[in-house]
Amino acid sequence: VVGFSKTSKRQMHVYDIKMAGKPKFKQDMQTGNGTMSLHYDNDLGIAYVTGKGDSSISYYEYTSGGIFPLSAFKGVTQKGVAWMPKRCVNVEKCEIARAFKLTATKVEPVQLVVPRKSDMFQEDIFPNAYAGVPALEAAQWA
Question: Largest Cα–Cα distance in the chain?
């Protein structure tokens, strides 16, 4: 969950569904006053945080040990961001996420790439992902 603290600092909280009253982890983030949105990549454990009026897309790694800031994509001020499905990324360029950023004058594509020397398939950053199709039909389940 992304939001603001009592002192208007931006924060990210991770909750355990069994104990929803208390956050499991808290992470302070960059300052700003625009509405934030969160996109979570469950396969890689990366949370992408964008804010209306911000000029960056920040990303954080979530593990069982906590939330850790990774980096940020800097650009022009954004009004919103729409994320593409995983099947749209270019695996040969080690692209882990793709989005479209709405600015005041245009829609700008954003590619988040992990720097690697090899153009071979990288299994560590492309684990098996949900394909959008069921593994079994109803008759096979029974």
Answer: 55
Q: How far is CA 59 from CA 88, 102, 119, 135, in A?
A: 19, 18, 24, 31
Structure tokens of 106? 């245009």
* Residue-wise pLDDT tens digits, 11-32: 777 887 888 788 777 777 776 7
Query: In Å, what is the CA distance from 121 to each residue of 87, 90, 118, 125, 132?
Result: 14, 10, 8, 9, 22
Helix (H, G, I), strand (E, B) or coil at 140: helix
Give the position of tokens 């906590």: 66
Tokens found for residue 131: 């394909």
pLDDT in tens, 32-89: 767 888 888 988 888 898 888 888 888 888 888 788 888 888 888 889 999 999 888 8
Please state, in angstroms and as integers, the Cα–Cα distance from residue 136 to each residue in 43, 54, 140, 142, following that order. 21, 43, 6, 10
